[in-house]
Amino acid sequence: MENAPTQASSLASGLQISEEVEQRFNLVKSVGEQCTHDDELRDLLAKKAAPVCYDGFEPSGRMHIAQGLMKIMSVNQLTSAGCRVKIWIADWFAYMNNKLGGDLKKIRVVGEYFKEIFQAAGMNCENVEFLWSSEEINARGDEYWPLVMDIACRNSLAKIKRCMPIMGHSETEELSAAHILYVCMQCADTLFLEADICQLGMDQETVNLLARDYCDDIKRGNKPVILSHHLLRGLQQGQTKMSKSDPSSAIFMEDEEAEVNVKIKKAYCPPGIVEGNPCVEYVRYIILPWFNEFTVERDEKYGGTKTYKSFEDIVTDYESNVLHPKDLKDALSKALNKILQVSIAFWRNNTPVRDHFKTNSRAKNLLKQVKGYKITRTALSKEMEALSVNAPNPASSAAGLQLSEEVENKYNIVRSIGEECIQEDELKNLLAKKPTPICYDGFEPSGRMHIAQGVMKVTNVNKLTTAGCQVKIWIADWFAQLNNKLGGDLERIKVVGEYFKEIWQAGGMNTDKVSFLWASDEINGRGGKYWPLVMDIARRNNLRRILRCGQIMGRSETEVLSAAQILYPCMQCADIFLLEADICQLGMDQRKVNMLAREYCDDIKRKNKPIILSHHMLPGLQQGQEKMSKSNPSSAIFMEDEEADVNEKISKAYCPARIVEGNPCLEYVKYLVLPRFNEFTVGTDGGNKTFESFEDIAAEYESGALAPEDLKKALVKALNIMLQPVRDHFKTNERAKNLLEQVKVIKCFSPCVYNLINHIACILT
């Protein structure tokens, strides 16, 4: 990217710049190999005396010299120019990237070791803050996570994947879901820390540009200036960067003199070639900035001692073979050892790095621990296993377990709810051992409530509480926002959530053993437990596995997806454990993410897996509609539909004579009427006939004895009986009336219309 001209006496904003500002600008800009928009940097320094600069690192293993010396020089230059530097110790990011096996205790030790080195080696910390990402995010999770989710919603999966170099990966590699979450979080960090300048390596540029794009998207004026520093290559031929897993590829901050000498001696340093020469790069980016000169000591016959003040002079001599690789290497080793061993005046009398790690007991202990850590990625630690899920309850197999009549009755009630139950023996065992199992149910608030969400849920919840279950209904407001329901407008989503609660209570739900829990409130209140769990689930599952869960959001894995569609399944899986659920009572369309939760239990060796009880999904009323659609009112009965609406919709519903399979009217009878009334009465020319089983109804219908028009009349009557209490409530209760009016207005707009309205509003304001 081209930079603006450096010579300027005024800015595009019209501000006149002083000599002092120009000096500060030159000092700050010298930190980076590349700066996006010099004019923005000048403008910032002219307007703000102490701009905030964001820097950071993933604690993982020992510190190589680029992380140490280059960061110290950069930070000291920035603070000299008046900047406040926030150094982000990205412990949660190292965890997601599976550094040190995802062991947060080890990651914490390495973070402290890095801080120790920075301070010992001369970082001026007067205007520097070291911030642990886990602590800062936990303290202000209500600000941070909505920002992450908004970034995820606004960016396609393909765009996020292009940022993979920030984690040392390519977008073509086998990626985990955590890699997607990582990018969204790092993008959020910039804004969360209120950074004016992002001072990170060239490998981080894509995510920094993502942050600027996001600012454009939300119409945020003050975008962060990106200042990207050079990345030193590894010491061996072909190594484009240093590697902590290969000690010969880099000099480490506590390397002994002999180690430095051996590594530089063996380093790749082709005579006459500067491009791609790691030894020449060390001189350019470490030695010259540190000492402002580079002295080569030689015998007179080889040219004698010479002190270089500029890199250009070094290049000239090296390319012309006046400066030999051996002489350059000897001088480089000497300079590096001097930095690592000898106290420099501006170190403010700190102990040199090597001596500090030999004489300071805390530093010695940190270094000993860090040297013992393997850099390779390993299995999850026991500490994180404990953090990831609630401590498992001891449970034995149902085999051989004698069930009492009471437990058998409870089992039959609970089992009747699900079209499918994963491991019936586990359900029996649970009901035998736990008097009040926890059942997790939930919904995304979005538009009006159709009859399956209303009547079926009321019936199912009442059965569960009758069987002794405690039901936790998860009002998934943040999930609706991630899925861009109601245009992602959280206020509207909350209105719809309250409307749903009002309907269930009016429709006869026994709420004595029911808790309604707003996802945003619960997650904000327990973020310290929830988000590490989400991250753990994300890092253990590849993108292909998570993409297969797209059905839970009404998506297919072949659609063009946003990053939110990756975050959503990981969060829904985590919900189950956060709520300590024994049973997941959700629709068949949620089965894949519930299975993900059971697979996660296998992965972390958790014995008591959640039991999956999946209820049937009612089809739409029209032919070929596999499911109801809120955007097509004729496809479903809604809970506050008037009697005339119900009559008209059922009269027009698909109901082919003698055909049971795929007949929505018969499905309404099977899954709504019979479970609610335990019978279905049909009036015919021969009089009324009452059915107590669906098998009898199906037999009569297939034989032609039960005609479609008679079935429809009986169905209309039964549905109107169920819905009348809700209608009455929404006509007489002021709160309910107000909610319904708001929801009816809300439902008229699709996400596209919402986005258009918001865009117009932004233009007008």
Automatic annotation (TrEMBL):
Catalytic activity: tRNA(Tyr) + L-tyrosine + ATP = L-tyrosyl-tRNA(Tyr) + AMP + diphosphate + H(+)
Enzyme Commission code(s) on record: 6.1.1.1
Transmembrane segments: none
Aminoacyl-tRNA synthetase keyword on record: yes
InterPro entries in the record: aa-tRNA-synth_Ic (IPR002305), Rossmann-like_a/b/a_fold (IPR014729), Tyr-tRNA_synthase (IPR050489)
UniProt KW keywords: Aminoacyl-tRNA synthetase, ATP-binding, Ligase, Nucleotide-binding, Protein biosynthesis
Leader sequence segment: none
Keyword Nucleotide-binding: yes
Protein name as it appears in the record: tyrosine--tRNA ligase
Annotated source species: Brassica napus
